[in-house]
Structure formats: C-alpha cells, structure tokens
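User: What would this chain look like folded?
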Amino acid sequence: MHDLETTLALLANTPAALNALLRDLPDAWTRVNEGEKTWSAFDVVGHLIHCEHDDWMPRVRVILEHGNAVPFPPFDRFGHVKAVEGKSMPELLDELIQLRAENLAELRGLRLTEAVLARRGQHPALGVVTLSELLATWAAHDLNHIHQLSRVMAHQYREAVGPFRQYLGVMRCDAHGA
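Assistant: Here's the prediction, encoded as structure tokens.
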C-alpha cells in the first residue's frame, strides 16, 4: 500500500543523500561508467534532473487536468545528455536540490486526498496508471538509481578487492532495470 507521506519523505531526502555521497568526489568516481552505453554517477544525477523537469510533475499535472483522456507526453530517458554538457557535479547537485524542493512544494500544495490519488492517467507504454502508482514509482525510481550509483561506483574496484568480491553483492549485481 502506498503512503504519500512516506513517499514524500524519501523524495525529499534523495538529493541530500546524493549530495553527501557525490559532492567533492574526484571525476574518477563520478564520471566512470561500466562500459559502452552505461551511465556514470554524473549521468544518473543528470537523468534525475531531467526527470524533475519533464517526467514526474508534468505527469501529475496531466492526471489532475485530464485524467486518462490525454496520454502522458513521451519521456526521453536520455534527454539529460545535452543538458549536462559543461556542468560540474556540484552544479548538478545544486540544481537537483533546488528542483526537487520546488516540485515537492508544488506537490504538497495540491493537498492530495485518497480520491485524488486514485485518479487515473494514461502512460504511453503501460496504459492506465493511478496518481498513487506514479508517485510511488517516483520514489522507487530514486532508489533504483541510488542502487545503480552504488553498483557503478563499486564496479571500478571489482579487481582491486580481490577475493573479497565474493562477500560484496554490489560486485555481483548485473543490472538495475531495462
């Protein structure tokens, strides 16, 4: 069962958690990925910023204004690539912190009731989804990318840890999603 206050608490804490983990780390930690067509920590933060602009709150607004009569606009999962060019990790973290605070203030201002959370929207690939499911997915999406960050950053130590690798689940994790 989805609890809105729990979701809001996690969403509010994600930028601070990423800030604590990533700010002031050298690029060797934040710009390294797992190989071709994979994301670095820098890419993940850029993606989260892109989602703040073009995914979560715009879809909330579509549900509230149109229900499932109007499908959500398509979302470009790689839309962050050009938007992050020339920026530093601290700049991205500051932007994420600001955007998330603004989006959560707007969301809290909506004073969502159980009836409103049950309203439906039309996802272009998944079909009908509820506002509650969308908000729960926003929180799970954050956790998914925190997991991805851990895996990507640990990946560069896969050889350095030697036989300890067998005790480190993060070294054996193959994927975070399609």
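The longest strand covers residues 120-123. If you want, I can go into more detail on any region.
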